[in-house]
Amino acid sequence: MKHQINQGQRVEIVSISKLNILLDAVAEQMELYTPKKIGDHYTFAKYDSSIETPLDFNNIRAYTPIKEFLFPLRELVAIFPESVEPDEVKPFAVFGLKNCDLRSIEILDKVFLEEEFQDPFYQRRREKLFIISTDCFDPTESCCCTLFGGQPFTQSGFDLNVSKTSDGFITEVGSNKGRDFVEKHLRLFTDTPEALLIERDKTRAKTQKQLEQNNSEYELDAPVNKILENSTDSEVFDIESQKCVECQACTRICPTCHCFYLYDTRQKDYFAKMNMWDSCMRMAYAAVAGGANPRKVLGDRIKHRLMHKFSFFFDRYGIEMCVGCGRCIDADSHGMDIRVVLKKLSEELRTKPKAEIAK
Fold first, then answer.
1. What are phi and psi for residue 8, nearest 5 degrees?
2. Which of 35, 257, 304, 347 has the fewest CB atoms within 10 Å, i.e. the most exposed one?
3. Which run of H or of E encompasses 260?
């Protein structure tokens, strides 16, 4: 039998009967964004508790990457002759983030919160973000987190995590912010029966197995960084580039791609410097003064993108820059699949003489 939690009891895992009860409580304190299904995909929309519409508990990650909340497509970063300070950011919450999203935040933090290079615009948004993650329970064919060290549920990096069960929702506390929220709203929650925890763990194991089965044909023979570092002369990049139309969707939709450029605009009485997303898949991206461009060939740009994700970033931070969310696979209009490219490179490396393989 469920029973109410006692005041003063340390909260780690609790249950709630209906999702909207939790979301209404969050929305009373801050702006809240929740998943909304459009066609076959999810995006995020502002939550309005006054509108009685069915809530979408997204089975997989939303199409919208979390970086849009932390690192906007376009923003003003400086003006002259006056200086500009980041706008005040009010607390906001995003519900429905998945483990791949949380892993992408970890990667963005390394880029924008480095001690010597902290981005004050990113920092203020990051500090105000309240993360409510949820478990995946029905992954699509493009989901491939298990290939890149991930899993369909999260164990860290969230404030609250919500797991759907046959009798309500298990809510797990992951931070002091999450614990403070639950303890202020104890009347909404009950203790979690052991049977529901067992059900949750079975669902997680089933989803993990499904992901591994879906991606079994893409398993690699070696670490990705080693495969790429030994494939710089491969023709696979040029062959696969024939499927690419240079739309740059793969980098725009990627939750970890963070390249940007700064450009100046002149207003009536001041000059403004704007920050805007860029893409290494754009032909002019690597162009330098005088017109020289070391990556005019599309295959070279695909190679650079993958080297950055799996080799360059790994060498600097110790983690890969791909979380296996599969967004780039869904976004590609001509069927380029990062798993296929890496598998071909892996198979090609297997046939190379050992003397040619770098350790």
1. 90, -10
2. 347
3. strand 260-266
